[in-house]
Every structure is written in structure tokens, then in C-alpha cells.
């Protein structure tokens, strides 16, 4: 499989942002948000998930939710090995649930996890063509940053935030860390 990525490289950025689209989407649909994030100082990466956009797969009809989780978990491992800068993962809808599931597999790779419009977990049975219980995260993601640190940044795990307002307030530090 060859995964296509849309990227706004910012080698001097103090943090990276990985954007995950929802079902039926593609990286280009996230481009306005990617441009805003790059303007705020993030190095941005947005993959086309297998079966969507320009990502090539041999049998698109055989793709299941666990394949997407494997793909994103592998991407998180690769990104962590290649770059030590903090990583913010932002996913919408299915991309949010996917970000949550992949973060549970590779918790040390993600500094902040932002998700919106999470899918109902009951739909996993259709997505995975199997039991939803077998595809739930093995454990709740324990991210590098504490809840207190996240809340100091204006992020609360228990409340809805205005994402655009939060991004306008984000201070990304440039240079070596």
C-alpha cells in the first residue's frame, strides 16, 4: 500500500500536527485547517486513509477499521522515530475515533489528542465486519502531557472547545528544543 500525504513542512516549527479525516473524506478536505495550523507555526501532515483520496490499495473493498488503526499506528511510530518534536493529533468523526484508537496503541507518540464528532462505537461492527469489542482500544490513551498541562493550554478533556479559537491562542515555539 502506498499512503498519500498532504504536507505543509515547517522544519523550524516547534510542534507537528497530524490531521485525520473522517469517512468519505480525504486530506484535501482538511486543507483550510492545515493552512491555518501552518500559519500558527505547526508542521502539518494529513494522510489520505486507505481507500480514500490518492492512497492506493490493492482491494479497497477489503479495507476495515482495524486496517486504518494499523495504518495510523504505524504512521505514529514512524513520525516518532523520525522527529522528536511534540505531536498534536486532530481527528474528525471517524478520524477522531481512529486517532483515539491509534493513540491507545502508541501512547508515547502523541502529546495532545483533539477529536471532534466521534463516531458511535456501535458502528464499529459495520466498519470492522466483526465484533466491536475486539476493536476497541486496549487501554485508554495515556498521553505524555498531563490533564493539568492540557487545561493550562486551554484544552479540557471534558468540555467542548472552539477549535479555531484554541488554535489562534496556541503558542508554538520555534527553534531547537
- The first-level CATH class is given as Alpha Beta
Strand order of the largest sheet: 1-3-2-4-5
Rg, Å, rounded? 16 Å
Proper CATH architecture:
3-Layer(aba) Sandwich
- Helix and strand composition category: alpha/beta
Total number of helical segments? 6
- Looking at the structure, the CATH topology is Rossmann fold
Strand content is: 15-25%
Mean pLDDT: 78
Give the full name of the CATH homologous superfamily.
Answer: Alpha/Beta hydrolase fold, catalytic domain
Largest sheet descriptor: 5 strands, mixed
- Secondary-structure element string: EEHEHEHEHHH
End-to-end separation: 34 Å
Summed up:
The protein is an alpha/beta fold. The protein is 32% helix and 15% strand.
Can you describe this structure?
This protein is an alpha/beta fold. The chain contains 6 helices and 5 strands; from the N terminus they run E-E-H-E-H-E-H-E-H-H-H. The protein has helices at residues 31-39, 65-82, 94-105, 124-128, 147-152, 163-169; strands at 5-8, 15-20, 42-47, 87-92, 112-116. A 5-stranded mixed sheet has the order 1-3-2-4-5, with helices on both faces. Helix 3 (94-105) links the parallel strand 4 (87-92) and strand 5 (112-116).
Could you name the key traits of this structure?
177 residues; alpha/beta; Rossmann fold; 5-stranded mixed β-sheet; 6 helices; 5 strands; 32% helix; disordered C terminus
Strand and helix layout:
Layout lengths: L4 E4 L6 E6 L10 H9 L2 E6 L17 H18 L4 E6 L1 H12 L6 E5 L7 H5 L18 H6 L10 H7 L8
Parallel strand pairs: 2-3, 2-4, 4-5
Antiparallel strand pairs: 1-3
Helix pairs in contact: 2-3
Amino acid at each position: 500500500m502506498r499512503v498519500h500525504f498532504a504536507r505543509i513542512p515547517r522544519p523550524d516549527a516547534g510542534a507537528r500536527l497530524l490531521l485525520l479525516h473522517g469517512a468519505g473524506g480525504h486530506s484535501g478536505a482538511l486543507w483550510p485547517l492545515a493552512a491555518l495550523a501552518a500559519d500558527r507555526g505547526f508542521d502539518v501532515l494529513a494522510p489520505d486513509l486507505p481507500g480514500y483520496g490518492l492512497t492506493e490499495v490493492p482491494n479497497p473493498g477489503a479495507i476495515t477499521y482495524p486496517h486504518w488503526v494499523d495504518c495510523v499506528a504505524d504512521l505514529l511510530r514512524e513520525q516518532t522515530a523520525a522527529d522528536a518534536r511534540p505531536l498534536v493529533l486532530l481527528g474528525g468523526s471517524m478520524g477522531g475515533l481512529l486517532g483515539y484508537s491509534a493513540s491507545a496503541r502508541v501512547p508515547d507518540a502523541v502529546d495532545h489528542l483533539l477529536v471532534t464528532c466521534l463516531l458511535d462505537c456501535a458502528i464499529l461492527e459495520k466498519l470492522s465486519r466483526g465484533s466491536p469489542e475486539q476493536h476497541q482500544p486496549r487501554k485508554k490513551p495515556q498521553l505524555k502531557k498531563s490533564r493539568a498541562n492540557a487545561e493550562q493550554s486551554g484544552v479540557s478533556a471534558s468540555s467542548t472547545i472552539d477549535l479555531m479559537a484554541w488554535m489562534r491562542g496556541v503558542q508554538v515555539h520555534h527553534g531547537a528544543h
